[in-house]
Amino acid sequence: MSKLKAYSVRDEQSDCDYSTVVFAETRGKARALALSTDACEWAEFKDVRVLRVPELDECYRGRWEMDWNNPEDRIALVKHGWHCSYEIDDPECESCEAKEWCDRYDERKRESW
Fold first, then answer.
1. CA-closest candidate to residue 20, choices 111, 63, 96
2. Which of 3, 34, 103, 113 has the fewest CB neighbours in a 10 Å radius?
């Protein structure tokens, strides 16, 4: 089996910016996996945008999709530009394990000074 690579996937036809990261051998296999994710569950195969994210290859830990609720995955994603959908003033920001690397959290702190 080839080494699995990280791919960001999202529904191009969706109004939101929700994306996820899946691990697959090829871009086509990543697109097929995307259809089983929350980010692309309503997408047509042709409407799934797939982008390589090589800096997340090392985050493969035996699961085909990164899990936002897993602290290790969340920190890795936030370090590479992902963020939650919470409003900037959401109280959950204070307890988030990735706040140290989060641009939105930094923005929130600057606004409160």
1. 63
2. 113
